[in-house]
Each structure stands twice: as C-alpha cells, then as structure tokens.
Give the backbone structure.
Amino acid sequence: MTSTTTGGQAGVADLRDILNQGYVDYPAGLDEEKFIANRHPPMFLVYSVFLRYFKNVYHMFDGDLVLALVLAEIWMFNMARYFNRTGLRQGADVLSDPEKRRTLLPGCNAYAVSQTLGVPSETVRRKVRKLEQMGWLERNHDGALIVTLKLEELFPPALTLQDIRYFVGTARMLTTLLEDE
C-alpha cells in the first residue's frame, strides 16, 4: 500500500494506511544509501527504542508477551476502526466515557485476533478470558471485544508521554543521521 505526501509531510493517505493496519511507505527524506553504507548506528537507535518498549511490556505483563499481543491487537482493532470513522482529532469525550465506548467502539472477536497474530484460537480465547477477568477487556453492545478504561491505568498519560519523548528524541537523532544533504 503506498501513500501520498503533502508538502514533504505525511499526508492523509498515510494515516489511512496506519488505521487500516497497513504500512506507510514514506521514506521521510532519508538517504537510504547513507543507511546502507553505515547501517549500525541507525539500527542501534531504532532497536534501542524497540528493546526499551519490549522490556517495559514484558514486565507489565509478568512475562506473558502473548497476553500483551492479544490485548494490543484488540486495542488496535478498536481504535483504528473508531478513528477511521471519526478522524484522529475526535475521541476524548467518547473514549473517556465507559458507556459511550461500549456503544461506539467497533469490537472484534477472538477468531480474528487469532488469525491476525497467528496464535491458536484456544490460546487467544484463554488470554481473552484472563483479560476480561482482569477488567481490561469487556464485551460491547454486540458482544464483541473492546478494551476498557482500566487499561489506561496500565498505560497512563505520563508513561505514554515518556515513551513519546524517547521515541521522538530518537527519531530526531536518526533523521539527523540519515537525512539528505
């Protein structure tokens, strides 16, 4: 799936690609030959972000990365479809209200999660039951799976802001390292 750009910035099509769980094919003005010629510093920067995040998730989920993946996939499904309908600038009033969430968030089922992740259906069903018992998942008005507000206790704004700062700072270093001259 390719995307469009507007004035050197990622365009609306890029956001649609992400919302539809595609990949944004947007090189951001990076000198790819420069990367190939000296790939280790950029790889170090990129993977330092990933490793830091994976270690945090590993600890948050007591080492159960499949549980984390199931929850993340359901969250992505819910949010991508909601934002695809409403746009990225909408949501605070709906997403902060438990009843509106149950009504307006598009839910998914364990089978779809199993297919997307490549994890056996029974494993996903077990993880879903555990997540429901923990209060992080519930059923919407159609009986489909949606994430609850309790999940935001696990990922509070301060933690997300810390992750964003680290990501953006690293992305700036990477961009400087690889930008066209």
